[in-house]
Amino acid sequence: MSGFNKVVDSYAQALAGLENGMTVLAGGFGLCGIPENLIQEIKNKGTKELTFVSNNCGVDGFGLGVLLEDRQIKKMVSSYVGENKLFEEQLLAGDLEVELTPQGTLAEKMRAGGAGIPAFYTATGYGTPVGEGKEVKEFNGRKYIMEESITGDFAIVKAWKADTYGNLIYRHTAQNFNPMAATAGKITVVEVEEIVEPGELDPAHIHTPGIYVDRVILGTFEKRIEQRTVRTA
Amino acid sequence: MSGFNKVVDSYAQALAGLENGMTVLAGGFGLCGIPENLIQEIKNKGTKELTFVSNNCGVDGFGLGVLLEDRQIKKMVSSYVGENKLFEEQLLAGDLEVELTPQGTLAEKMRAGGAGIPAFYTATGYGTPVGEGKEVKEFNGRKYIMEESITGDFAIVKAWKADTYGNLIYRHTAQNFNPMAATAGKITVVEVEEIVEPGELDPAHIHTPGIYVDRVILGTFEKRIEQRTVRTA
Amino acid sequence: MALTREQLAQRVAQEMQDGYYVNLGIGIPTLVANYVPDGMEVMLQSENGLLGMGPFPTEAELDADMINAGKQTVTAATGASIFSSAESFAMIRGGHVDLTVLGAFEVDVQGNIASYMIPGKLIKGMGGAMDLVAGADNIIVTMTHASKHGDSKLLTKCTLPLTGAGCIKKIVTDLAFIEIKDEKFHLIERAPGVSVKEILEKTAGEMVVPKDVPEMQF
Amino acid sequence: MALTREQLAQRVAQEMQDGYYVNLGIGIPTLVANYVPDGMEVMLQSENGLLGMGPFPTEAELDADMINAGKQTVTAATGASIFSSAESFAMIRGGHVDLTVLGAFEVDVQGNIASYMIPGKLIKGMGGAMDLVAGADNIIVTMTHASKHGDSKLLTKCTLPLTGAGCIKKIVTDLAFIEIKDEKFHLIERAPGVSVKEILEKTAGEMVVPKDVPEMQF
């Protein structure tokens, strides 16, 4: 690597420096737009006691679910979990901690983390278990709670195309949490379906500017579908 | 207008409902990406005592500067002003109030306003005149000030292309403050260089989704250049 | 007769207006999309980042990268836009969505809603529901009036942990259309053939009943 | 000899590293772009929403919609991205820019900087300067060591209203390269032919001087 070339050749290089006990932000919504291969590489590395910030925790045998198999996850910060049995077992056994966070608050916490905003106010969760213990302030006659931002030691991101400078474009709704995760990782690693030369992506249509990206790796993807719904043509 | 067709035919319709004393958010940076014709229409209407939230206040005879001529502006919320003599005169005479706001804080205040976030913390301005009288809170050993969000009765925006549903694309650096202004106006009016049919803009590359936009009008633009800098080929 | 799921969806759909941006929750709310009145256009917002959700794809159109908030494969309608989760909830939290429809376990006379958590059962999470009820001005809760055991879901005070406080103003149940004002339920319409007496029996919170309670029209 | 504007820019440029994202302020900082060391790539961030600022356009390329933060017409470099002001300052505030270079009226031993306002004169505003000094970890202030009247700009305590508090660690003046640590200025290098004595005479704040103060190398 020299200059702005962020491309690495192996998944081992992509996740160099990931250590036990770290916090990892992961893009994806359900199984859509998840960094499949980076998750598999974390499984291969056997890194433990990880805190994951991710909207969901995959399913049994796919997505972040595979990291439950060897109990690599200590804590999940998510808006919706429990789509798999292993998760439920470990949660009930007290082997896994979960911090449930409203989906919009979760997205905004990551965005704020990347944008140097340590905290913000939101009406979401006021008067609910989410608001308990949090500072309340009134603006224009309505009550809001203070939410603190989230950053990670690593961010693992799935994009569609990257140029070698790390400028990213996401495909359809596989965008979801990926752009925010990308901004909030101390080290941001992105796996993509295609790597192009700088200048091939329109500057006005880049979803994540390369300044947020540290490493880019080319992958192949299964893209498993969680709810296959079709109509007859 | 029916369904999602936001297109209006005249500048009078575009600014229907604008009244004395209202707050208007305006896109643009310097003279780049400013809603030239909407500004001119405000001059034509003669609406007075307006508060403008805009990074700058144009120049003598162009941009928001033209609204100084008949003293239509009561207050400016800006990061940098005074590129024109009339502004200076009215400021020194006490006829014009200015609330200087750091550029990034101004952008974030508008974004927060549109996103339902009443306030956020930033290190910007702590320990400076901007921080005076504002709540200070410490996060991770560093001090931050609380900044409240901004919304407007109207937002006036300049985009490049719109579809009839109000989905917008900006051209080059004429994007600047326009996307945030678009989200934070009670009524958001956009003037564009080209109107296309829904479906002609790529859903993944729309800068401002139509949900934020109330009215779209086709305009022609002078696009005056403030600092003409060229090199020899 | 209590409304069917389809009738519930149909009644909710009558609350839509031309040009509305609408977020529909999972379950009965999803069905509302099937009953958009003729000649009316609405655009569906899916909180995972899609404004302008279209129908399910054909086999040929099927694409793992195009899903809705229920994780179902969908298509994008003409004029759609696609964006990040942060942008999606900026729309929602900022009050830009015109109508939000979602289910609930309980609603009370203060407009509180409980919909995501039954203590003692596994808590799966609130997803986007807390953001949706906090962000929208115009929310319709749709649910059965009482549980399978006959317990009212319209209460003086919610017993389950809240999803949102003081945010619900309209409820469509299988028995009635109800508005919440001044810390009371107000009976607006009853399902065809359902008596006011039955509705009152199945409503635990205080309910104001006008002299004439019209039947829902379909 | 005091450095020329070009030499100042050249000395600042030596602080860049390959792969740096750099924000250059108006004035001397802008000139730094002309002295990027050979074989090194840097990308310029312009806070109006451009990452990857290229050179001025030719007459044929001139485009009113493509400007930099100084409102000059520019071009986009290969691999550039263009975005909103909110995104631009998310980058800046979030500490993603590797190096920020800007001018100042005064800097003091606590790392305070005053650069936008002289009371009694018309206040034009801080633009993005407050965000830049609050957001960047690595800032170089470049200015003349003393005013035209001979008054030091390196003070025990800034006299003008601050742009930022405790955020400056490196200063390049026309006389010296200085670091700020432990509430003291530290003389690191002197301009070729300039004596430590002259630098000390023109520095109002406490300055630590090592035995050997090397001359700047160009």
Itemize the secondary structure elements and their pairings:
The complex is a heterotetramer, with 2 copies of chain A (233 residues) and 2 copies of chain C (218 residues).
Chain A: H1 11-14, E1 23-26, H2 36-45, E2 50-53, E3 73-78, H3 85-92, E4 97-100, H4 103-114, E5 119-122, E6 136-139, E7 142-148, E8 152-163, E9 168-169, H5 178-184, E10 185-196, E11 215-218
Parallel strand pairs in A: 1-2, 1-8, 2-3, 3-4, 8-10, 10-11
Antiparallel strand pairs in A: 5-7, 6-7, 8-9
Helix pairs in contact in A: 4-5
Chain C: H1 5-13, E1 20-24, H2 28-31, E2 42-46, E3 50-53, E4 76-82, H3 85-93, E5 99-102, E6 106-108, E7 113-114, H4 129-135, E8 139-143, E9 154-155, E10 170-173, E11 176-181, E12 184-190, H5 196-201, E13 207-208
Parallel strand pairs in C: 1-2, 1-5, 5-8, 6-9, 8-10, 12-13
Antiparallel strand pairs in C: 2-3, 3-4, 6-7, 10-11, 11-12
Helix pairs in contact in C: 3-4
Provide an overview of this structure.
- The complex is a heterotetramer, with two copies of chain A (233 residues) and two copies of chain C (218 residues).
- Chain A has 233 residues and is α/β, with parallel strands linked by helices.
- Chain A has helices at residues 11-14, 36-45, 85-92, 103-114, 178-184, and strands at 23-26, 50-53, 73-78, 97-100, 119-122, 136-139, 142-148, 152-163, 168-169, 185-196, 215-218.
- In chain A, strands 1, 2, 3, 4, 8, 9, 10 and 11 form an eight-stranded mixed β-sheet that branches. In chain A, strands 5-7-6 form a three-stranded antiparallel β-sheet.
- In chain A, helix 4 runs parallel beside helix 5.
- The longest helix of chain A is centred in the middle third of the chain and has 12 residues, at 103-114.
- By secondary structure, chain C is of the alpha/beta class.
- Chain C has one domain (5-208): Glutaconate Coenzyme A-transferase, CATH 3.40.1080.10.
- In chain C, 16% of the residues lie in helices and 26% in strands.
- Chain C contains five helices and 13 strands.
- Chain C has helices at residues 5-13, 28-31, 85-93, 129-135, 196-201; strands spanning 20-24, 42-46, 50-53, 76-82, 99-102, 106-108, 113-114, 139-143, 154-155, 170-173, 176-181, 184-190, 207-208.
- A ten-stranded mixed β-sheet of chain C has the order 4-3-2-1-5-8-10-11-12-13, with helices on both faces.
- In chain C, strand 6 and strand 7 (113-114) form a beta hairpin.
- In chain C, helix 3 packs parallel to helix 4.
- Chain C is globular.
- The model of chain C has no long low-confidence stretch (mean pLDDT 96).
- At the A-C interface, helix 3, helix 4 and helix 5 of A face helix 3 and helix 4 of C.
